[in-house]
Recover the amino acids of this structure.
C-alpha cells in the first residue's frame, strides 16, 4: 500500500485505525438494523478514511 503525496505515516495510521474501529463496531449492530445493514453502513463510513492510500 502506498500513501498519497503529502500524507504522513502518522496521519495514515490514524485514518486506518478509525476505519478499523468503524468496521469492528459494526459487529455489534444497531437497533433495528440487520447485521448486513450494519456492515454496509460501516463500510460506507470507513471508505473516506482510506482515501489517504493510493
Amino acid at each position: 500500500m502506498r500513501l498519497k503525496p503529502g500524507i504522513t505515516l502518522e496521519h495514515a495510521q490514524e485514518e486506518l485505525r478509525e476505519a478499523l474501529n468503524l468496521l469492528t463496531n459494526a459487529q455489534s449492530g444497531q437497533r433495528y438494523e440487520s447485521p448486513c445493514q450494519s456492515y454496509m453502513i460501516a463500510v460506507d463510513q470507513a471508505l473516506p478514511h482510506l482515501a489517504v492510500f493510493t
The first helix runs from residue 9 to 25.
